[in-house]
Amino acid sequence: MPRTHTHRRHRPLGLLLAASALALGPLAGSAAATPSPEPTAEAEVVLEATLDPRNVFASPGSVVPLEATVTNTGTADMTGGSADFEVTGDATVVGVEPGDGCEQVSPQRVECHTDAALAAGESATATFEVQLPDNVSETIVGDATLTVAGDNGGEATATSILEVGPPDGYHLRVTAPASAEGAAAESVDLLTTVSNDGGIDLAGASLDVEVPDGATITGVTVPDLVPGTERPDEGCAIVTPRRLECHTEQTLIAYDGYYEATVEVLFDDDAPAGELGVATVRGAGDQGGDDTVDTAEVVLTVLEGGGTETGGTETGTETGGDGGTAGGNELPNTGGDELADTGAGRLPVLLAGAVLLAAGGALLLRTRRT
């Protein structure tokens, strides 16, 4: 018969208690942990600023509006604030709307302040008027910057680029070097240009150059120099020794056409060293009135030292060699027809050379004057 175990198996009491403790542990812990409420965030002012357009592109001299917008994206109302608007380059601020609380502290800066509140989620706008320079085209002249700050917090900045495009109507521009320098009796070349950077073709244009006392106009490389003392229909004429007048009947096409002349200017022989004066260059279109008139100036300077070469003369005394006086004991040979080697025999040759150099210098100056 099979054997049957009738006694019970004893379970260790420690294991049962441990299991009970594990089972009760999480329950006790979960009952004790109570979630604490999250701290409430403090309300604050957060500002955003924009300028529209972000890139200004307009013709020279234009007055362009920039709309400034300030938005309170925070959770607290702004209780007053300031707005400063400033432009750089040759641009100027010419107006603001609305202008209450604004002051123009310089031609390029306006400062505004308000005590009005700007509620959370609300926006405020203002329009600043900017005038672009009229003496440049197709270039970036600077930027416009809006800086805003709330009295009780929050600040922001926005910027727009200011670019001058080509003029819409008639517009002519004269360019020339800012300065030119040379010695007395020397010539300098002035490259002068009349260009049509407007939006309308120009049928014909003139270019005049006038130099100060102490300089004369001796010619022009391009275009052709025409005989006479009156402005020609095509080409250039020296109407006085100090004034050149040029004209072309060709059409200077819009935005791209130009007419140029390289003028030769000769400084007088006795022109004093230093700044001589200003050469004036004036261009004008045959149409367009004052919109096609422009001028430029060239500062002329005479350098010291003159325009002649000063290579110097040899002044040293030869004391060596066979016929010299080395040692101080040998006397010059004065006998017979032979001249002593004292330098006297070379004097006529040196004088003849000096005469030739002087003649060459006179020829050079005469050539430069023609």
UniProtKB/TrEMBL annotation:
**InterPro entries, alphabetically?**
Ig-like_fold, LPXTG_anchor
Task: Please note every region of biased composition (Gly residues).
Answer: 305-327
* Signal peptide positions on this chain: 1-31
Report the transmembrane regions from the record.
Answer: 347-365
Task: Spell out the residue ranges making up region: Disordered.
Answer: 305-336
PROSITE patterns from the entry?
A: GRAM_POS_ANCHORING
The Gene Ontology biological process annotation of the record reads: carbohydrate metabolic process
Give start and end of each Gram-positive cocci surface proteins LPxTG domain. 331-370
Give the UniProt keywords, A-Z: Cell wall, Membrane, Peptidoglycan-anchor, Secreted, Signal, Transmembrane, Transmembrane helix
Superkingdom assignment: Bacteria
By what name is this protein known?
A: Gram-positive cocci surface proteins LPxTG domain-containing protein
